[in-house]
Model the fold of this input.
Amino acid sequence: MSHITSWTISGTDGQPILGNTHMPNPGPDDPVGVMLICHGFKGYKDYGFFPHIAEAASAAGLIAHRFNFSHSGMTNHIDTFHRPELFEQDTWRKQATDLKAVIAAVNSGTLSGGGQPITIFGHSRGGLTTLLTAGDQGISEQLAGVVTAASPSACSRIGAEQKEMLKRVGRLPSPSSRTGQTLYVGRVWQDEIDQDPTWHDPCRAIAAIRCPVMLIHGSDDTTVPVSESQDLHRARPDADYLVIQGAGHTFNAPNPLPLDQTPPKESQQMIDAACGFAADCCKQ
Done:
């Protein structure tokens, strides 16, 4: 087990970004770099395989920071969305601002890893946020590598009827089967996309990234079909591309998945590929 610590930094609109750091165990070599771990829609830093990928990253010599986006609605009380009002106000740019804040905190030494190469891993919506952020001018130059797992290829996947309802009513219900809460996606999310569709184009973003990229997807993902990773790969043909056979959206990982429990083989295959790629990028 790595040494795990907790931290808080300020994110979008002054809301806290809560995180955990997994430090590699002391050895003959210094850490080779840093991995930032981004969760997806209705996800959080403690969900499913996230602690496991942080542990695997630390075992590969990476300082791993997993964190909750400031408007995820989640705190360290993981049984509920403790701040549902923040969830309703979340947007892609808010998540990108948070991720840039974490990168800046590492570079400044506020978080461990100052002066080390930085890689980013994002799952599902977190993968798309990773691409949009890294595609911004001046950001990918600060990165050694980017890995996405089960990332969509579009920022808005709702139909015309839902979009009209969102604009008319101001929010769309989005129930959480995990907590039993009815969460809401706010109109601000769609308005932001409509106001700047170019920035919100993941295929544009991935093509603009100036560091190595790896795309991972499950062949049996029914939430984000594997065709969406193919869209991203066409936009970035030199990206490493891995389809894990038999894997669903969470790569078959249950939630929770305690650190003393072995992940499913599909999850482990994704974790090993992501951490191996990230460590290799940091060593180049």
Observations:
- The longest helix spans residues 265-283.
- The domain at 3-155+197-283 is CATH 3.40.50.1820 (Rossmann fold).
- The first strand starts at residue 3 and ends at 10.
- The mean pLDDT is 97.
